């Protein structure tokens, strides 16, 4: 299969109005990481088009598909898998031109949520007063399939979904073809790290899914330090006092006996500048997962849109150093994703 990244940022497209970012992008171009939100194209061996997520990156992909069999009168076929419906994963959809061509056949796979069908959620962003036309004129979207954890879709490739750990829930996908597997684990908050446990149940599920994968495309929105609020000393003190003194006011349960999720809620309150509970991870934890799974490459994605290219370079460098520190250089390839990155497996 052939992969091309069209969007590798989380939250919002990178704010090019921010002077620092804009200057860097202009001076580094074309070696910049880009600025679009999440979208990954995977082309199966038989040429069938698979798309994962519809952030702003899908706009450019759509324009390119118009020259690749999705123009009016042609019968372009694609399967679009959404990890979830947070805005950075669907905001490009209203501008995805192939969806407006009635002769195309695009199937959408998405999870139903908050007592709404997947189609209702997606069409909501084009309802009055958010968008000038309604989604029902996107006549190229011919099928809406509801998908959830544990499901496997058999098409030109096999696509398996498992539950991610993310607010409002999200899916992690594994795409397999001819014995080769890639895992798309964006919008994922790791287990274990803040409690000193090596792996928690969700990490173990991800490791299991990613066993022997060619690559894990992994969420690295926050650095480990940003994740705990930017102050290691303060984090240590808070943890110490929670572990010795804290009892849940309602149940009286001590911190040490709380579940992982319960502890995270307390920590998020005690450390308001932390990103605990925001549903994202970091490169260091990605290395843990990738090594445990025996994956060949760790592709860092869902970059923080407030980061400059230089800051992303530093994150990648730190990840390389971490690998070196563990004596694992050569066991795992670290690849930072950027808009336009192409890979073949
Ligand atoms: Zn996201
Ligand atoms: Zn999200």
* Hetero compounds: zinc ion
| CATH C-level label | Alpha Beta
Q: DSSP strand (E) fraction?
A: 15-25%
Spatial separation of the terminal alpha carbons: 6 Å
Q: Give the uncertain stretches in residue-range form.
A: none
Q: Major β-sheet, in short?
A: 7 strands, mixed
Domain module tally: 1
How big is the Rg?
21 Å
Within CATH, the superfamily carries the name Ribonuclease Z/Hydroxyacylglutathione hydrolase-like
The percentage helix is 25-40%
Order of helices and strands: EHEEHEEHEEEEEHEHHHHEHEE
Based on helices, strands and strand pairing, what is the structural class?
A: alpha/beta
**At CATH's second level, what is the architecture?**
4-Layer Sandwich
Quick check: average pLDDT?
Answer: 93
- Multimeric status of the protein: single chain
Looking at the structure, the CATH topology is Metallo-beta-lactamase, Chain A
Please work out how many helical segments DSSP would assign.
9
Q: Could you give the order of strands across the largest sheet?
A: 6-5-4-3-2-1-14
What's the overall geometry? globular
């Amino acid at each position: 299969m052939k992969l091309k990244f069209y969007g590798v940022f989380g939250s919002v497209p990178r704010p090019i109005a921010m002077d620092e970012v804009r200057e860097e992008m202009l001076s580094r171009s074309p070696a910049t990481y880009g600025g679009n939100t999440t979208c990954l194209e995977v082309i199966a061996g038989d040429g069938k088009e698979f798309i994962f997520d519809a952030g702003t990156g899908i706009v450019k992909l759509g324009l390119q598909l118009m020259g690749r069999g999705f123009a009016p009168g042609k019968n372009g076929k694609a399967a679009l898998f959404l990890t979830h419906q947070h805005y950075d994963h669907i905001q490009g959809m209203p501008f995805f031109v192939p969806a407006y061509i009635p002769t195309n056949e695009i199937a959408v796979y998405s999870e139903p949520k908050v007592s709404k069908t997947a189609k209702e959620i997606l069409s909501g962003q084009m309802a009055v007063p958010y968008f000038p036309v309604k989604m029902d004129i996107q006549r190229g979207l011919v099928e809406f399939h509801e998908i959830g954890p544990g499901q496997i879709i058999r098409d030109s490739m096999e696509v398996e979904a498992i539950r991610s750990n993310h607010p409002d829930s999200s899916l992690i996908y594994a795409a397999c073809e001819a014995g080769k597997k890639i895992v798309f684990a964006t919008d994922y908050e790791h287990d274990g790290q803040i409690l000193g446990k090596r792996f928690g149940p969700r990490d173990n599920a991800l490791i299991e899914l990613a066993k022997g994968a060619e690559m894990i495309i992994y969420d690295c929105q926050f650095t480990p330090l940003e994740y705990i609020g930017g102050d290691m000393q303060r984090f240590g003190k808070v943890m110490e006092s929670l572990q010795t003194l804290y009892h849940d006011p309602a149940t009286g349960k001590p911190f040490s006996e709380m579940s992982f999720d319960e502890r995270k809620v307390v920590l998020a309150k005690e450390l308001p500048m932390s990103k605990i509970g925001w549903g994202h991870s970091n490169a260091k934890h990605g290395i843990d997962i990738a090594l445990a799974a025996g994956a060949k490459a760790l592709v860092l994605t869902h970059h923080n849109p407030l980061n400059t290219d230089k800051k992303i370079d530093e994150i990648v460098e730190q990840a390389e150093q971490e690998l070196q520190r563990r004596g694992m250089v050569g066991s795992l390839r670290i690849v930072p994703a950027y808009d336009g990155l192409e890979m073949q497996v």
